[in-house]
Amino acid sequence: MRLQLLGVQPLQFKTDSGNLIEGHNLYIGYTDENVSGMKASKIFVKKSVALPQGLKQGSMLEIAFNMKGKPEKIELIK
């Protein structure tokens, strides 16, 4: 899926059961046939999924999702 990066938010917190969660929220924009302009969403990316070097606001990304809809690979397009 091709997306435009709007922002990145680092996250680190403990769950109620004491598990440490680390990763990033990526705020993204993309075209949607039911939206005039771009649609905006947020996706959580685990720390184990590498963010590409040179990532900045406005970058175009290709994100591959696994069968459960979780991001597993992120590539910088431009």
- Largest sheet at a glance? 5 strands, antiparallel
Low-confidence stretches: none
- Dominant shape: globular
- In percent terms, what proportion of residues is strand? over 45%
Question: How confident is the prediction overall: mean pLDDT?
Answer: 94
Cα end-to-end separation: 14 Å
DSSP summary, beta strand count: 5
N-to-C series of helices and strands = EEEEE
Specify the structural class. Answer: mainly beta
How is this fold's topology laid out?
Elements: E1 2-14, E2 20-31, E3 38-46, E4 60-65, E5 71-76
Antiparallel strand pairs: 1-2, 1-4, 2-3, 4-5
Description:
The chain is mostly beta strands and 78 residues long. Helices cover 0% and strands 59% of the residues. It is built from no helices and 5 strands. The chain has strands at 2-14, 20-31, 38-46, 60-65, 71-76. A 5-stranded antiparallel beta sheet has the order 3-2-1-4-5, with no helix packed on it. A hairpin with a 6-residue loop joins strand 2 and strand 3. The protein is globular and about 40 Å long. It starts with a strand and ends with a strand.
